[in-house]
Structure formats: C-alpha cells, structure tokens
Design goal:
This protein has 8 helices and 9 strands. The chain has 289 residues and is α+β, with helices and mostly antiparallel strands. It has one domain (6-21, 49-287).
C-alpha cells in the first residue's frame, strides 16, 4: 500500500484513497441496478494537458518514477487546473435549502450523479470508461457514513476509518480486504457555511471544489493561494479517479456519495465518495438488496 496523505484546511480537505490488488470474484455481475449518468448542472472539469497535466506524468507519479522536472510540470498543470476550472450552475431549482446530513433520496442521487459527472468528464479526457451511478453503491456509501457517525470518525482523522468501512462492506456483500472503496474529503468550512444546511447550489459548488482538489495535487487553501506550488503534494486521488494507478485500476466502478459529521461538531462534514469495482462484489444478492 502506498503512503496515505491527509489535508486539513478551513477551505476544504481531502483524505487519500488507498488501494489493494487482487481478484476477489471474477464472476459476471448479476441484476445490479445501474443508471447512465447525466450531469445535474452544466459543470465539468477540463484537464490542462498542455500545461503538464498528462496521463504519463500522473501514472509515473503514482508509480514513484516521475522525474523532478516532470513533477514540476505536473504541479504547473495542477495549478492551471485549479485556477481555470470555474463552477457554473444555472439551475434555479438548486436555490432550495437542503440539510446535507438528511438529504432526501432523490437529492442524494442527484448529488451522486453530479459528482460523477465531474469525475467522468475528466476520465473521458484520459480515454477512460465512465463510472456508473448505482443505487446499491449508494446504500453501501450510506452504511459507510453511518459507521463514521456512530463511531465519531471523520476525514479530520489521520486515516480512513478502515474498521467501519470493512463492516459496511460485509453488510453490503462486498470483500472486506480493506480500504479499496473510499475517496474521502471534507466540505469547505467558511464563516457563512459552517453547519450542515446550505443550498443545493452551494453544496454542488463545494463538491466541485473537492473533486478539483482530488484531481489537482490535493491542493489545500484559498483562491489566493493557488499559485503556491507547495500546496500541491499528492496525485493518488487523481490516479484513482482517472484510472492511472496500474496496480489497482478497474476499468469502471459503481458509484455513490454520502455524508457524515462529528457528533459534537456539525461544521466538520465528511464526504464519502464510494467506488465499487466488480471484482470486490462477493455476494450479488446481498449487494442488490
């Protein structure tokens, strides 16, 4: 397993995704409910390949073989990615207020699909297959969030809550090999949004920022700090989301997003982006419940 990273900042945080290799079940996927993702808003993320954000640089970074010169190019490209990608939402229905910790099922599906539209827009630019929204992956994501909540864990901890993820995986008919499912981040904390209520538009904008962080070097900080190269320190998230970690990649995954908070601090809301590779599904009937 590669070294894990955690990033904490008042403007947003990202927790790293850890990967394992190995085939758990090579059988055919049976009766899994899936849907083709359609973007909830007109947002996407453009990868600045001309600035050094290339497939080969991300792959080499994740393999530990990148040169200093190419890493500097990757940082330069990541800076460009953070600065050039702007959030857009022209949907007036997104002005409604939502409680992030008590989203309706339809709102949770919408956020999952929106997050996935961002990830898939980037994957396509790298020639990768789309990930797919799945009700079953969302149920698993909710079990993961409940484990975090019940045990007062969050992305502000130094590591993923692996014991809870494994229990949620077992309850969902998945392999308990370890932390092979979660990309974790934290909603940005600001003076205006420091609880669990905000508009759907603001929630999508914060998710947009989280995905940008994951793709572009684990950036942490505010807009006026985006030119600081020292704030770009990891591309494991990018490797996972873009399918550029040769030992751990799956051609596609089933996906859902959930949220949790600390019992004594509603300002710290963890985002659980859950991707399930088919090889980790051990009990299809249980996963499909």
């Amino acid at each position: 397993m590669k070294k894990e990273f955690k990033f904490l900042a008042i403007f947003g945080i990202v927790a790293s995704f850890a990967g394992f290799s190995g085939n758990i079940n090579n059988g055919h996927l049976i009766n899994i409910k899936t849907e083709t993702v359609q973007a909830a808003v007109t947002s996407s993320i453009t990868l600045p390949k001309s600035a050094g954000y290339t497939k080969s640089n991300i792959l080499r970074e994740n393999e530990g073989t990148i040169s200093k010169a190419n890493r500097n190019k990757l940082i330069k490209g990541s800076i460009a990615g953070m600065k050039e990608n702007k959030f857009i939402d022209t949907d007036t229905s997104d002005n409604r207020s939502v409680d992030v910790l008590h989203l309706s099922h339809s709102d949770q599906v919408e956020i999952s699909k929106y997050t996935l539209s961002l990830i898939n827009s980037a994957r396509r630019q790298m020639g990768k297959r789309d990930w797919t929204y799945s009700d079953n992956a969302l149920k698993f994501a909710n079990r993961v969030a409940l484990e975090y909540t019940n045990n007062n864990k969050s992305c502000w901890d130094p590591d993923h809550y692996v014991a809870g993820i494994k229990r949620a995986a077992k309850a969902s008919g998945l392999s308990t090999i370890g932390q092979v499912y979660e990309d974790e981040s934290g909603l940005p904390i600001t003076s205006e949004y420091n609880g669990h209520t905000r508009t759907m538009k603001v929630l999508k904008e914060q998710i947009y920022f989280n995905v940008k962080q994951m793709l572009f070097g684990g950036f942490y900080g505010s807009d006026n700090q985006m030119n600081d190269a020292s704030r770009y320190v990891e591309w494991e998230h990018a490797g996972d989301l873009l399918g550029l970690r040769s030992k751990y990649d799956a051609k596609t995954k089933l996906f859902g997003v959930s949220f949790s908070s600390l019992k004594d601090d509603d300002s710290k809301i963890s985002v659980h982006m859950i991707g399930v590779a088919k090889r980790y599904i051990k009990n299809y009937k249980k996963f499909n419940k």
